[in-house]
Amino acid sequence: MAKTLAHNWSFRPRSYNSSCTCIEGTCHNTIDGDGKCKPGSCQFSYTGDNCDKTWKVCPAFDKKLLHCHVHAHCEIDRPRRQPLGGLLPLLSLLPLGPRPRYMCSCNTGYTGNGRECFPIDPCALPDRGGCHPQAKCIQTGPGKSVCVCDPGWHGDGKSCSPIAVCTVHNDCHPDARCVLLIPGQRVISS
């Protein structure tokens, strides 16, 4: 929202960002800020505009360091060795063939290339977190969600069935007939 002063002048950040994207630093969310981290405010060992990059140690003998996103880890992609044919099985223990490749991979619940990772919202995916069409998907964290059946429906959210109010609430007059309008609602007619 723009701040209006007594002279009716309007001030607004140059590139307004409604939320702070700074992770391990101080957010620059003042009138001239952009929602990223203030320059020089990153915590120890963090870098980047959002203080979201840090060094990760790869699980290998040489303990290689990679500059990965905060929500990523280092992996080793070991190429498969070609069979050595009739050579002694001990030769297969030698480090022959292509060298392993080190890479950053986003943690579970995040997507990206490992240098940039973004939280996955299962509710925004085409299957809406696996929820039934008559259920609401609620994101509970990166890559996590719960499903809740709509009013008039019951179930676990992944599977929902209409509530048959005419059979559940059999409080109709003996000369009346209960008619289901939409799940959870009824009309009594005579």
* Fourth-tier CATH superfamily name of the domain at 52-78 and 99-119: Laminin
Strand content: 25-35%
Briefly note the structural class of the backbone. mainly beta
User: For the terminal residues, how far apart are their CA atoms?
Assistant: 57 Å
How would you characterize this protein structure?
- InterPro entries: EGF, EGF_STAB1-2, NELL2-like_EGF.
- It holds the Pfam family EGF_3.
- Keywords: Disulfide bond, EGF-like domain, Glycoprotein, Membrane.
- It is found in: Membrane.
- Its main location: membrane.
- By secondary structure, the chain is mainly beta.
- Among the domains are: 1-44, no CATH class; 52-78 and 99-119, Laminin (Ribbon).
- Helices cover 2% and strands 34% of the residues.
- It has 1 helix and 15 strands.
- The chain has one helix at 165-168; strands at 3-4, 10-11, 46-47, 53-57, 65-69, 72-77, 101-106, 110-112, 117-119, 135-141, 144-149, 153-155, 160-162, 177-182, 185-189.
- Strands 3-4-5 form a 3-stranded antiparallel β-sheet, with no helix packed on it. A two-stranded antiparallel sheet has the order 1-2.
- A hairpin with a 7-residue loop joins strand 4 and strand 5.
- The longest helix is centred in the last third of the chain and has 4 residues, at 165-168.
- The protein is elongated and about 85 Å long.
- The two termini are 57 Å apart.
